[in-house]
Amino acid sequence: MNKFKFNILVAITVCMGLLSCSDSFLDTESQTNLNDGSFYQTIADMEMALVGCYDGYQRTVSDGGLAFYITSEILSDNCFGGTGNTDNRDYQALDRFDISQSSSSNDLYNVTWTSYYAGIFRCNKLLQKMGEPENWGDDAATVNRVAGEARYLRALMYFDLVRLFERVPLLTEPTTDNIPQAESAETYKLIVEDLKFAASNIPANAYPKADAENNDGRVTSYAAKALLARVYLFYTGYYGNDDLGVTKAEVLQGLEDVISSGEFGLLTTYKEMWPAASYIPDAEKNTLDKSGYAGAGNIETIFAQKFNNTSDYNGMVDGNRWLVMMGMRNTNWSPYGKGWGACTVNPRLVSAFANGDQRKTASIIDIEGEGIKDAFDIKDQREYTGYTVKKYTPTVFPDGTSDTGGSNDFQISQDQDYIIIRYADVLLMAAELGSGNAQSYYNQVRTRAGLTARTVSQANIMEERRFEFAFEGIRYWDLLRQGLDVAASTIAQTQSVLSGNASDQVVISSDNIKKTRGFMQIPNTQITRSKDVLTQNAGW
Q1: What is the tens place of the pLDDT at every residue in 493-535?
Q2: Are 396 and 338 in contact (CB under 8 A)?
Q3: Minimal CA–CA distance to 399: which of 303, 283, 485?
Q4: What is the CATH number of domain 1-65+109-202?
Q5: Which of 26, 218, 291, 400 sits 20 to 30 Å CA-CA off 17?
Q6: Got the DSSP string for 225-266?
Q7: Are 163 and 212 in contact (CB under 8 A)?
Q8: Domain extents for the chain?
């Protein structure tokens, strides 16, 4: 376990009580003896509170709500909802942009909403209590670095929220006030301000890649510059406005800084980025040969959401809770581990990969082609297509025992990190924004996949992104930023599938997508708790 992960575990008992949100609407309370009077007094206190901010961001997943990643994949044209054939149809409600599909829930995102605001509260509390940096004398630079990391995490959480719901309460300090939703432009402007601050105040050498064992998962100035580009591209694309307080040239320069830093690069082969794609089972020894995996914190990772395999049912919550959703339904086939069968892969994507594109076999489990079908629990699988996701799936040893360490419960102890931004994305965003090296950047990504070079263009970049970032939670937002009509027409379809081994169809209407404008349902519990200060999004 690396040092950063260990520090999160040590700090949880302090940070969860000191900085947690209660179950009421955006309410907060202290649950330990540490309080405002006894904490936030020293640089060490600020560093510990910062770890609590990282933990708060981690818990947006590990609290068990509807994960941003799962939503992003189901909404896209990559995947269908899937899951068990007799499960509730919440994922189908998302896939069809139609709440009437679900008979069990009119409150899909309540845990997600609460977890995100709990994480934002932690960041706001830290930023409030540290006060003005000049008051810290010789420690001002350290305080600014801590503030930069906290503001990045706040920006990232708000970026998820504003893409999911568009209009959300915009809190910049800890408060129990019942405030209305802000206009999206206000939220995006805060995100940009936070990211610019992080990029300027986290020293470039604060967390060198050469010391990834200790630094993996920490926010860097490069992560801030890369995320700023993603924010800029989505906002200017979807809204058609360029009024965020940062110019296109500044955003591009940030990406060029990442590229020229020498800290990052493309891995030699695509599959070495993903555990299940690179692990080789040894049935005789009942082991997994992991030598082909580049490992967490590798040279291509700009920023990742970190997880551990130490979760339990007694308050230790640090596992990747959505990963088990991605496993093949009740089916172990080493190195692929069982799970709940979500996000069955759209055959249209499978057939769209070019011959020789190494990303296809690294990204997709071909249930029939890899000889798994006879062992597959097809009678319990909804929306079976013959394909499922390989990039993010549990892993098991040849005897079917989970690769999560010891006797940990595979349902809560999955520890594969979620890569938020990687170097290939930086290259393609820089090409899209008009870098003078656009041709080189584009073809570096393409040739790494085993394909021949071709002329860079906006259309070719967007097509390359489809295959390069398949199943990484990016495709839906790439479609939406090209315009609602583009997203709706691309995602809408009728596709034959099997549910419970019987003929079924997935029917997605472009009208449903347009009615929602691509955004999700505000949790009805939160609307009720706000006494209707919050209002529901169209189409839900």
Answers
A1: 999 999 999 999 999 999 999 999 999 999 999 999 999 999 9
A2: yes
A3: 283
A4: 1.25.40.890
A5: 218
A6: HHHHHHHHHHHHHHH----SS--HHHHHHHHHHHHHTSS---
A7: no
A8: 1-65+109-202, 66-105+266-299+307-416+474-540
